[in-house]
């Protein structure tokens, strides 16, 4: 399956995720939903947030120019909110899955979707 198919089918296809992207841990966008343009600076800040959670907790998460306030960073997962909307970001061995949702959808509905895909990608070496 292509990286774009994971975004289209496994994330957007659930109806819970409004925008999604798969970023490479070494940099670059592997796949994304249309118009979800995460800048190289935003990508670097997200990836750095996993190893320096205090920094991303203080500064928040920026995605395609929108600022989200970081709720928490736990192990491989970052969750952030902006009003009723939010984002779930999960790191695998080689990638970072980014899933933005729009209220009334909530994080507990989106988190298992993103974590499940991350678990699968880890199981196949990514």
UniProtKB/TrEMBL annotation:
Gene Ontology cellular component annotations, sorted alphabetically: cell cortex; cytoskeleton
Keyword tags: Actin-binding, Cytoplasm, Cytoskeleton
Keyword Cytoplasm belongs to the record: yes
UniProt keyword Cytoplasm present: yes
Record's subcellular location: Cytoplasm, Cytoskeleton
InterPro entries recorded: PFN, PFN_euk, PFN_sf, Profilin_CS
Role according to the record: Binds to actin and affects the structure of the cytoskeleton. At high concentrations, profilin prevents the polymerization of actin, whereas it enhances it at low concentrations.
Similarity section: Belongs to the profilin family.
The protein, known as: Profilin
Organism for this UniProt entry: Psilocybe cubensis
